[in-house]
Amino acid sequence: MSDHAAHDHGHDHGGHGAGEHVHHPNYVRIWAILLALLIVSVAGPFIGIKLVTLMTAFGIAIVKAYLVVKNFMHIDIAAKYVAYFVVTALVFMFLFFAGAAPDVMKAQGRNWEKPSWVSGAVHAGTPGLEHGEEHGEGHGEEHP
Amino acid sequence: MSSARPIATTRSSAGMPTGRLAVWWVIASEIVIFGGILASYIMHRLAHDAFAAQAAHTNTWIGAFNTFVLLTSSLSAVMAHRAADHGDAKGAANYLWLTVGGGATFLIVKAFEWTHEIREGFTITSSTFWSFYYTAAGIHASHVLAGMVLMSYIALDAAKGREMQRVEYVGLYWHFVDIVWIFLFPLLYIAK
To answer: Is residue B50 less than 8 Å (CB to CB) from chain A?
Structure first.
């Protein structure tokens, strides 16, 4: 059985669609680009500008992820629907964020208010807010 | 109804081998798992400025070194794929073992890092930030460990020229684990 599979490898594995072979780019070059981007993302915070840090940290993370998905995972030559269900999973992640973020990030909304035991805990110094969180640089929530 | 080979490695009515399709399905479901953790972290990070003060205790250089290790292990994983494509069974197996070595290095560094942080008093119950930190990095590390086990098993077969299609499949999974770390690194180590 295994030998059959090995024999079949050239047809089965090499063909990402219907028999065509994977084009293997210069992987070492892509790896070198990824390392250069890593260095930039580590160096970003040393400039001391918050916007630059965000750009070099998260902007570069997105670029790195794109390079890995495209060149190492070959998603661009996989069947189209693979990209569709990966994107669908990402959309579900954003839906979750959009649905849950108001509860976490706001103390009150048009028709709701965070229970007092939740907002009160912030000031009471609960175990979940030790090590400086209760003395942090502001909680960011508006308490009624 | 006997078959010489498992159907999953040969059927391709979906336009690709079913084994590869299965791995992509796993990745899509993992996006929801890790995406939920990352999205939860981001919304708490945005709501609580105090997270920044806690994140200041993480060691950026250790995080950067582990990013370097995982990126390099992704390189060896895709080199294994290329070797398998060229029919180089030994080369594919050797690259897979290199990737396993990268995973082991990552976990060893993580173990030292966590030991240091726990000794400093930053445990999973210390604060919300540290809960996220240990949960997200812990689930990621368990995926690294699972990938190493799978890859070792596949490397043993690949060295004998068996089931070579699996070299690419396990590589897909490994690259995904690498991508998760690409996002965890700036969240936990850089955004301070």
So the answer is: yes
